[in-house]
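Teaching note: in complex prediction, the entire set of molecules is handled at once rather than each chain in isolation. The prompt given to students was simply: 'Predict the structure of this complex.' The entities are:
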Amino acid sequence: MPDGALSRRAELHDVPARVVREAIRSGRWRGTTHDMARGHVQANLAILPERYALDFMRFCLRNPKPCPLLDVTDTGNPEPARVAPGADLRSDLSRYVIYRDGKKVEEVGDIRALWRPDHVGFVMGCSLSFDAALTDAGIDPAQLRRGEPGVQARIPVYTSALQCVPAGPFQGPLVVSLKPVPRHLAAEVEAVTSRYPLAHGGPAHVGDPAAIGVDPSRAEWTGPCTIGPDEVPMFWACGVTPQAVALAAGIPEMITHATGHMFLTDLTLADIRR
Amino acid sequence: MPDGALSRRAELHDVPARVVREAIRSGRWRGTTHDMARGHVQANLAILPERYALDFMRFCLRNPKPCPLLDVTDTGNPEPARVAPGADLRSDLSRYVIYRDGKKVEEVGDIRALWRPDHVGFVMGCSLSFDAALTDAGIDPAQLRRGEPGVQARIPVYTSALQCVPAGPFQGPLVVSLKPVPRHLAAEVEAVTSRYPLAHGGPAHVGDPAAIGVDPSRAEWTGPCTIGPDEVPMFWACGVTPQAVALAAGIPEMITHATGHMFLTDLTLADIRR
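The expected output is the structure of the full assembly:
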């Protein structure tokens, strides 16, 4: 790998996860982690004060589809030793979001100055991990993405009418992502993703969006999503869910990854395949 | 089911788990849960003060073979709502052990008078759940058990040289159970049990006992175990492990199930099969 800034995403496609983390830690990569260290499990991050950690961990156990727990750090220790020995959650993600009292206050590229001795880091599997498995099955994951034309395809996300199982202050609706899947691929997409429960697993809902209170034309962070006549709407539990419930709980502080700027674990898809 | 004491274990073999829990709660059954509510997942219980709960939950996440976490109650609430809605951990097990300051002080049939608002209940899958799966595969689980002749067959248990991943005060060796498996059945037994990671999963070790520091003639709670020339020694992570590490940590109080007196969950083997 060359010194200095990395100009091309492709340089990080087929490297070990550690190499991506090092490129981010040294400031040589500031972009999203889409397609990086392919075949490795990408993860959502949530950092909370210890006094909320037990309830948040119970929330994850009770809601494994949106919150598939891969690792929880020791209090005050930023190393997620179970999934990435030697990694540092303060510096190994390319973009973080700081929330205070239920409001987003800042996005930053490093949280070394913000880390406290009472912080606990939660690492949860992310559906970006699916991409390699879908590709291996002969399905191009890009064809399942929608969004505003002209910008990088993003996956439309909705607050559904399905409710999470509460734990302490953490409660609220399940946030879901929508992929319109060509009818002839639907069974295979369901089967492939179901093999990876630690990356959200199989769909939380298949079929009529109204049955789970979703109007596809009203995506929250992307443009409207249309579903063609030969497509099946498939919804997955989304890693935004724990952020949404933590914000709704109004806890004083939470730090998360920024959308698309995931944590790269050393786990491979084979490690979490069932 | 008749009123009054149940005279025969067979009356509880093929009933829903709820019926076993009710028989125990009402005092009509005081025995072990071996073979009861067949096809349901049986579980280990540990009750700890809340101040130890976060570290204990991290210990379970980091050591899923000995501590496959099925449910964690809300603090002060004895209902494990995820695995047995309506159940009561204070009365639905037929025998409990009370430990204080790292020492066993008492065995009781009910802990309603001992339950406190800061108690958290941990429910962890148990390998008794395997029995039905082995039977379905045409393997008699009784033939895999050893122990002192003349008493009900028990499974020999050993402290191994394998170390658990620590979390806070919880650390120590992995406790394993030994089943000598006829050579022609070894692959099938490994395959069947590996399908149930929430009931300890596949073996933690297969073959030479000395490789994990075990001398089969020195079982800790049963008689010596001999391994025949046509048998393979197979070791599973044992649910005694979390009790052993909690005791070694010298925490002031812990309440567990007594050996063989498990908690019957509403989960079926199909629910946890992967």
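Point out the following to students. Residues 2 and 104 of chain A are 36 Å apart (CA to CA). Confidence is low (pLDDT under 50) at residues 147-152 of chain A.
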